[in-house]
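Summary of Year 1 activities. Much of the first year was spent building the evaluation harness for sequence design. The harness presents a backbone, in tokenized form, and records the residue chosen at every position. We chose the following record to illustrate the format because it has been used consistently in internal testing since the harness was completed.
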């Protein structure tokens, strides 16, 4: 009897040792959105002054601790986390909590109905930032980072899987005929020794623009990612859920407030998403989480360098085309091109450098993409990754805009190639809104190859 008890005790201690090898912490804080703070997401200076909140916005942090080595992902319901903001807050977290800066990531859900956090150095903005909200966000980042570390506890196992929708819940807005969409919802469940799920991560590519009705467009909302995170918690699937947006540059939801002629577009799309997700939760498998490593590096992007004269010629093309069509949609874009021409004449570097990052958590690798890749190159990365289970996490550590396919770039080689379609031409030729040169046609492959080489 004594021998049996000794064996059991030793076995229990062994379990405790291995459980303690991986700990996970979570924390969240609801972000108070000031009345009349300008919302960001449907164009520059749209004067979408917030009239209230219909789906709360959160700042969340997840801390991974493997044998004393820590990585952290800070997650915000926002259109983007600008590069300089990510670097600023990464430095602050690293210094205060002794976390390696290379293992700290900032991820935005890309909701198009949250306050702007950042204004460009030249005054450009997709919404004029509200100083009080910027202060609120910075404070929340440090608070959830500290609480996530304090919240770390043993994780007994991690279950990963893919839920394949029986029918499409999204649509391709660029290649409408091919209509290639994200083929699966990728997910991971982090479970305690008692079997409860502490954290549920899910990953899918679909633009967060379901809250786009005539009324809702002036109300703050975390859109379908926030609604889905809430439903996961309400259904008892996890204590906390985070949606890491997948390759969504050319992906739209099938159901929005406008499409459904209903103010409930976000809920309708989220219910369809939840049904697809739930159908695949029984097909998961355990994955090893026995090590942690990460890489962060700044990469110069491939761009088409233009002269001041070429930029002004492009501006004239857009103005002339607007005049011919009786429109004014591209008027402000033409002005931005003319501003770029002035900057070029002053010797300003209008190239682009972005931060790329890979966080490796055992058999799970998080590929952090600083922008919006189209779905096809995203699928290629997921298929070619060497790890057991990859997550493609977009809108991470900055906002590098759209990473379009080579065929799309070739379809719209210059400003004169504009046709009657907005999507397709739009994603490739909005570079002037960030006062940077247009990407080369190989940009999506460049992004994916860079990340694969970092794996």
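For this record, the design step produced the sequence shown next.
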């Amino acid at each position: 009897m004594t021998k049996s008890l000794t064996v059991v005790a030793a076995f229990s201690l062994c379990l405790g040792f291995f459980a303690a090898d991986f700990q996970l912490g979570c924390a969240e804080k609801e972000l108070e959105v000031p009345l009349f703070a300008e919302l960001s997401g449907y164009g520059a200076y749209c004067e979408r002054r917030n009239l209230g909140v219909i789906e709360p916005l959160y700042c969340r942090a997840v801390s991974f601790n493997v044998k004393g080595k820590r990585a952290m992902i800070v997650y915000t319901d926002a259109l983007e986390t600008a590069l300089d903001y990510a670097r600023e807050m990464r430095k602050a977290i690293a210094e205060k909590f002794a976390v390696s800066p290379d293992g700290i990531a900032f991820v935005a859900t890309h909701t198009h109905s949250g306050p702007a956090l950042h204004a460009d150095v030249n005054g450009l903005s997709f919404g004029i930032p509200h100083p009080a909200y910027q202060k609120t966000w910075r404070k929340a980042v440090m608070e959830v980072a500290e609480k996530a570390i304090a919240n770390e506890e043993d994780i007994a196992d991690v279950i990963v899987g893919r839920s394949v929708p029986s029918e499409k819940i999204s649509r391709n807005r660029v290649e409408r005929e091919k209509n290639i969409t994200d083929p699966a919802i990728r997910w991971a469940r982090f479970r305690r020794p008692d079997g409860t799920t502490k954290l549920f991560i899910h990953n899918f590519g679909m633009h967060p623009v379901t809250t786009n009705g005539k009324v809702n467009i002036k109300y703050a909302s975390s859109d379908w990612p926030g609604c889905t995170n809430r439903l996961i918690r309400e259904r008892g699937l996890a204590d906390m859920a985070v949606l890491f947006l997948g390759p969504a540059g050319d992906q739209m939801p099938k159901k929005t407030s406008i499409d459904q002629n209903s103010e409930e577009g976000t809920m309708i799309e989220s219910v369809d998403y939840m049904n697809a997700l739930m159908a695949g939760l029984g097909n998961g498998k355990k994955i090893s989480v026995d090590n942690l490593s990460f890489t962060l590096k700044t990469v110069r992007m491939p761009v088409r360098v233009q002269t001041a004269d070429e930029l002004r010629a492009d501006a004239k093309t857009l103005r002339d085309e607007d005049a011919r069509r009786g429109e004014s949609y591209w008027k402000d874009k033409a002005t931005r091109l003319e501003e770029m021409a002035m900057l070029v004449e002053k010797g300003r570097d209008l190239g682009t450098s972005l931060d790329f990052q890979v966080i490796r958590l055992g058999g799970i690798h998080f590929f952090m993409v600083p922008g919006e890749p189209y779905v096809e190159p995203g699928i290629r990365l997921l298929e070619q990754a060497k790890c057991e289970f990859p997550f493609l996490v977009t809108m991470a550590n900055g906002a590098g805009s759209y990473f379009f396919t080579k065929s799309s770039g070739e379809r719209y080689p210059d400003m004169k190639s504009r046709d009657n379609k907005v999507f397709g031409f739009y994603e490739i030729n909005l570079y002037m809104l960030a006062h940077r040169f247009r990407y080369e046609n190989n940009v999506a492959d460049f992004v994916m190859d860079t990340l694969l080489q970092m794996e």
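The chain is about 30% helix and 25% strand. Quantitative recovery figures across the full test set are reported in Table 2.
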